[in-house]
Design brief:
The complex is a heterotrimer of chains A (281), B (267) and C (312).
Chain A (H helix, E strand, L loop, with lengths): L14 H24 L31 H36 L1 H16 L3 H12 L3 H28 L2 H8 L4 H9 L4 H24 L11 H8 L8 H28 L7
Chain B lengths: L3 E12 L2 E12 L3 E5 L6 H9 L6 E6 L2 E2 L2 H11 E4 L13 H11 L6 H14 L16 H14 L4 E5 L7 H18 L2 E6 L2 H7 L2 E6 L2 E7 H6 L4 H8 L6 H15 L1
Parallel strand pairs in B: 3-8, 3-9, 6-7, 7-8
Antiparallel strand pairs in B: 1-2, 1-4, 4-5, 9-10
Helix pairs in contact in B: 3-4, 3-5, 4-5, 5-6
Chain C lengths: L2 E12 L2 E12 L3 E5 L6 H8 L7 E8 L2 E2 L5 H7 L4 E4 L3 H4 L6 H11 L4 H14 L5 H4 L9 H13 L5 E5 L7 H18 L2 E6 L2 H7 L2 E6 L2 E7 H6 L4 H8 L50 E3 L2 E3 L5
Parallel strand pairs in C: 3-8, 3-9, 6-7, 7-8
Antiparallel strand pairs in C: 1-2, 1-4, 4-5, 9-10, 10-12, 11-12
Helix pairs in contact in C: 4-5, 4-7, 7-8
Classes of the chains: A mainly alpha (281), B alpha/beta (267), C alpha/beta (312).
């Protein structure tokens, strides 16, 4: 029943990928954290004499139209792209969980109202909603993050609500209710701890989608502003040179795809680790 | 005459056009073990859910200790004084809580033991009462067998010193030898603590062993109620008779004769 | 009479855990044998191993169906055996049937696979359902499983199992999910059809009550081993193995005067991963002597039966 507004990369289940996904995601996260210090050049140093250099010994991944080192910009941009995607997902998840928990313990009316609000948000495609909000707030990284949180909490709330309902129908929750465990403790000790596994999985999968969405927004110009190194913006910058200097747009494009795939796999790996029903048979 | 402790009066519950129970009335008296029996679909579960407030009946009332169960105060008291043991010991214990937390939770939420140390001591005693030991305190439900889990569930139920114990098919998921152990534990606890027990079951042999009185449910209605002697020695309702006649007997000669009688009467 | 199914020294391993340890069992034509044990005793694993249903478990020993050893057959040959000569019904009729396929097609399927025409297969499916007491069988071929009650679904399962005329039917707790009155009817039907068609039945169950009325012989399993085998008369007159005795005594009965307490077997069943040395049952046995913890008893023949216990 959960409306998927996020692009979801579906991949075949290969045990080896499962085992590699978790260290790979950790590696990408590490790069995002320490990326700027790994950069061989200053990512913001304009040097027109070095413009549009093909990948080679001096610049492993080439340079862009302003002569900036693309590898360095990628490493610097990793922080913006990956960390802000995680921030988006964490905020969207928190809002989603709070709303769903309120709907679950608040009775039928609270549930009805909160879910109709969700539906209103869900009726607008996520990308368009985010684009509108980001544009209205003025293009910046901060507004992209806000816009994406606004666009993403409703599907999360929907999912959490479905999971919570399932957990609430389980016998151990009913037995706690019959024993007189108050609603807040019921939620905190019985329902949430037994529901979080599937939320972790959804969150990990969402990071993958948000990376793509964020880059999309930057590409359209409402995200992080020049000269900051942002993968989506980098792809946009390289558009004009696709035929003459393919690497300017292609390299960040590959970085976006690769990161999205790695986090997608991470989510799947997490799912098979946490969900006993999917077991490895 | 024993006083009435828990009374169902005219309970009716419909799901769409399907009537799960209709006009179900009976009373659990102080100190007795009352059996609620019937086949699947007889409305046993719906009746229990209405009794303990997990489902709202369409009509009828539940009274506890002479007062209708209405309003927060009445329910609050009932939630402490009436405890429940569920059928599936694999589903009724929170997998993420330790035995100490599971059994101690009632003590905590009802403010009976406010300190962790006090609760631990009480839980240790309770585990001893149901035949488990203190070494099990910090283990999780998954490391226990079905019978042991059901003992944990019983310890949890009696922890808050209830007056009423509602057991929803507590032994039907267990193996025979374990079933006998758990039935004995229930019987001992009931007597030691002076509990009034509502025992829901489909196995008439187990019910006969435990219960003083029986309520027989057939397709959502009460077919018959009476004392153990009345029901087993002289059943009135044809439904009760057919249920009793179908109970298998672990004795080849008696079983052959019983089945022969069954065939004759079917003709 | 000769055996239709002869199991010799059957072992079942899951990973490096021995679940069934050296089981011998014989079924003669038309005979009804009950394999009794509690959860974890290995009785269901035995049933599934005979048909080699789980590719991930290792089956050892010999399973002779006529003159073929099923353990050595290829998977393809085994597929031909399943459902034609060796059929099985399971405990839960609601999950064993495909909810999206018509009942008639599911009953007729074993015949269709073997090349019987659709018309003939459906006609025989209707006959089989009719023999199993499904009212208006021919009309209900087009119904879906959810339109049937639990007992009727179990009859559908039985029809699908018996339609090819197998020599052996393995019934794994076939009536555990059913109400007593329905259970009785289903068992009577199995009994009747098995007698009419000369089918040998292996009933896997934990319920001694139904064993008494249904089976000719009883084999009792504990912790993956057979500890006793006897005719029902001998077994119910007084099982020879302390475990069998304990099991029988813990059954509450409607035909006996009420006692103060139910007899129990102390402790819990051992897991195959934690089998004690000597006799697996000795930690729970009231008759255990020092020898029981040192030396595993072998099955010895006593009268017409067999018992594995130092004390008999």
């Amino acid at each position: 029943m959960t409306a998927m507004t996020l692009p979801r990369i579906a991949l075949p289940r290969i045990p080896l990928l499962d085992r590699l996904a978790i260290p790979a995601a950790a590696l990408f996260l590490l790069i995002a954290l320490v990326g700027p210090w790994l950069a061989p050049h200053d990512p913001y140093q304009v040097d027109l004499s070095q413009a549009l250099q093909a990948p080679g010994p001096g610049h492993w991944l080439g340079t862009d139209a302003a002569g900036r080192d693309i590898l360095s910009r990628l490493l610097a941009g990793a922080r913006t792209t990956v960390l802000s995607s995680i921030v988006v997902v964490v905020f969207a998840a928190v809002v989603g969980i709070v709303v769903a928990a309120l709907a679950a313990i608040g009775g039928r009316w609270a549930d009805e109202i909160l879910m109709r609000v969700c539906d209103i948000f869900l009726s607008i495609p996520g990308m368009i909603l985010a684009l509108g909000i980001a544009a209205a707030l003025g293009p910046s990284l901060r507004s992209t993050i806000i816009a994406l949180v606004v666009a993403l909490w409703p599907p999360f709330a929907r999912l959490v609500r479905a999971v919570l309902r399932e957990t609430m129908a389980s016998t151990y929750v009913e037995s706690a209710r019959v024993m007189g465990v108050p609603a807040r403790r019921l939620m905190a000790r019985h329902v949430l701890p037994n529901s979080l596994d599937s939320l972790y999985v959804q969150a990990a999968l969402d990071v993958s989608g948000v990376i793509v969405l964020m880059s999309g927004l930057s590409f359209l110009g409402v995200g992080a502003q020049p000269p900051s190194a942002d993968w989506g913006a980098m792809v946009a910058d390289g558009r004009e040179f696709v035929t003459t200097a393919w690497w300017v747009a292609t390299v960040p494009g590959i970085a976006i795809t690769l990161t999205a795939v790695v986090f997608g796999l991470f989510g799947d790996a997490l799912r098979s680790k946490l969900d006993p029903t999917l077991g490895d048979a | 005459m024993r006083s009435d402790l828990l009374t169902a009066d005219g309970l009716t519950k419909r799901y769409g056009r399907f009537t799960a129970i209709e006009d179900v009335s009976f009373t659990l008296r102080a100190g007795e073990v009352l059996g609620l029996v019937g086949e699947s679909g007889s409305g046993k579960s719906t009746t229990v859910r209405c009794l303990v407030g997990l489902t709202k009946p369409d009509a009828g009332t539940v009274s506890y200790d002479g007062e209708p169960l209405q309003g927060r105060a009445a329910w609050h008291r009932f939630r402490r004084e009436a405890q429940m043991v569920f059928q599936d010991p694999y589903a009724s214990l929170n997998p993420r809580m330790t035995v100490a937390e599971i059994v101690g939770e009632g003590l905590r939420v009802h403010g009976i033991e406010r300190t962790a140390a006090g609760r631990r001591a009480r839980v240790t005693t309770l585990l001893g009462q149901v035949g488990l030991d203190a070494g099990d305190l910090d283990r999780y439900p998954r490391s226990f067998s079905g019978g042991q889990r059901q003992r944990i569930a019983i310890a949890r139920a009696i922890a808050v010193e209830p007056r009423v114990l509602i057991c929803d098919e507590p032994v039907s998921a267990l193996d025979v030898s374990v079933q006998a152990q758990v039935v004995n534990v229930l019987r001992d606890m009931g007597r030691e603590l002076g509990l009034s027990i509502l025992f829901i079951a489909h196995d008439l042999a187990v019910v006969r062993y435990l219960c003083d009185r029986l309520v027989v449910l057939d397709q959502g209605r009460i077919a018959e109620q009476g004392t153990r002697e009345q029901i087993y020695d002289n059943p009135q309702a044809p439904y009760t008779r057919s249920l009793l006649a179908a109970v298998p007997i672990p004795d080849p000669a008696a079983e052959r004769e019983r089945r022969h009688r069954q065939k004759e009467s079917a003709r | 009479m000769t055996a239709v199914l002869r199991v010799e020294n059957l072992t079942v391993d899951v990973g490096n855990l021995r679940i069934v340890d050296g089981l011998d069992l014989e079924l003669r034509a038309g005979e009804r044998v009950a394999l009794v044990g509690e959860s974890g005793s290995g009785k269901s694993m035995t049933a599934r191993a005979l048909l080699r249903l789980d590719p991930s478990v290792t089956v050892g020993g010999q399973v002779w169906l006529g003159d073929r050893d099923l353990v050595t057959l290829s998977e393809k040959q085994m597929q031909r055996v399943r459902g034609t000569e060796l059929a099985m019904v399971f405990q839960d009729p609601s999950t064993a049937l495909n909810p999206l396929r018509r009942v008639g097609d599911q009953v007729a399927e074993p015949l269709r696979i073997r090349g019987v025409s659709r018309r003939d297969a459906r006609r025989r499916a209707a006959e089989m359902l009719d023999r199993l007491g499904v009212p208006r069988a021919a009309e209900r071929l087009n119904a879906y499983p959810h339109e049937f009650s639990g007992g009727m679904r179990q009859r559908v399962m039985l029809a699908a199992a018996l339609i090819t005329g197998p020599r052996v039917l393995i019934a794994d707790e076939p009536t555990t999910a059913l109400d007593v009155r329905v259970q009785e009817k289903v068992l009577a039907l199995i009994e009747q059809l098995a007698a009419e068609d000369g089918i040998a039945v292996l009933l896997i169950t934990h319920d001694l009550g139904i064993v008494a009325g249904f089976a000719d012989r009883v084999a009792v399993m504990y912790a993956g081993r057979k500890v006793e085998e006897n005719s029902v008369e001998t077994f119910f007159a007084g099982p020879s193995h302390p475990y069998g005795r304990g099991l029988l005594n813990s059954v509450p009965r409607v035909d006996r005067a009420l006692t103060e307490r139910l007899d129990t077997i102390p402790g819990t069943a051992v897991k195959p991963s934690a089998r004690p040395p000597g006799c697996s049952f000795h930690p729970r046995c009231s008759a255990a002597v020092s020898r029981c913890s040192a030396e595993a008893p072998v099955l010895v023949t006593i009268g017409s039966g067999q018992v594995a216990c130092h004390e008999v």
